[in-house]
Design brief:
Blueprint lengths: L11 H4 L3 H8 L3 E4 L2 E11 L27 E6 L3 E7 L8 E11 L1 H8 L16 H8 L18 E3 L9 E4 L17 E4 L21
Antiparallel strand pairs: 1-2, 1-6, 2-5, 2-8, 3-4, 4-5, 7-8
The protein binds a DNA duplex through strand 3, strand 4 and helix 4.
Length: 217
DNA sequence: CAATAGATCTTCT
DNA sequence: GAAGATCTATTGG
């Protein structure tokens, strides 16, 4: 038997490339943390400064500072008052580009993922929904604020990114990014969402919608 | 099944 | 002050 080649951590060079190449090649890769391993089936590319849909669009701020760290860094942000989403910073260094992890299949540690995802008194979450959607994925992996900024390339990093691109026989599909409003969302200019065709763990497409006001106009 | 509203709070303008 | 790279429950067809 040949030793498994997908057990090694993806190196800096993997991440220090164009964000679209990194996004495509992350499909089928594995991410492990805190006893759970997932296989990535859906991602989105965010181009950094110059990409109207990206957090880095208006340059570096305290919140998005990690986007400007070394490629391979983990950018975890808090949104909608209750959810965390995770990204892997891509190259070139300093541009602010990153790949949002949007959907994955739990391939190890399903019991742990279930503990994190199941709500008391409610029916159990179907297996395919454990990491379907960026916030659900972060919950299954146990990722939140303290993990922001971790360097996944480092040998001792608790977050491991392993494996390579997807099975060449499985087509990669592309489309507009989910939940992005205005320029950078729908339209032909930013079909920057990538997923593996036929995977049940790919999140449902939902156009960006402006939320209704909470207060009087 | 599709559409919508509510939850909840950080961030930047 | 307002919007946000979301999720869930609920309502309506």
């Amino acid at each position: 038997m040949r030793p498994r080649t997908d057990a090694s951590r993806l190196p800096r060079d993997f991440f220090d490339r164009d964000v679209h190449a990194v996004a495509r090649d992350l499909l089928g890769a594995h991410v492990s943390h805190a006893g759970v391993t997932v296989r990535i089936t859906e991602v989105e590319a965010y181009g950094g400064v110059g990409d109207p849909g990206a957090h880095a669009f208006r340059g570096r701020t305290p919140r998005n500072a990690v986007l400007f760290e070394r490629p391979g860094s983990l950018y975890v942000y808090f949104t909608y008052g209750m959810h965390f989403c995770s990204n892997l910073v891509a190259g070139p260094h300093g541009q602010g580009a990153a790949v949002l992890l949007r959907g994955a299949e739990v391939v190890d540690g399903e019991d742990l993922a279930r503990v994190r995802r199941d709500a008391p008194g409610k029916p159990p979450v179907p297996a395919r929904d454990l990491a379907r959607g960026p916030a659900r994925l972060a919950v299954s992996l146990g990722l939140s604020r303290p993990h922001n900024g971790l360097d996944t390339v480092a040998p001792d990093c608790p977050v491991r990114v392993t494996g390579r691109h997807a099975d060449p026989d499985v087509p990669v599909r592309t489309g507009p990014r989910v939940g992005v409003t205005g320029p950078g969302g729908e339209g032909d200019s930013y079909p920057w969402r990538y997923w593996l065709e036929g995977e049940p763990t790919v999140s449902a497409y939902r156009p960006g919608v402006l939320r209704a006001r909470r207060t009087q106009p």
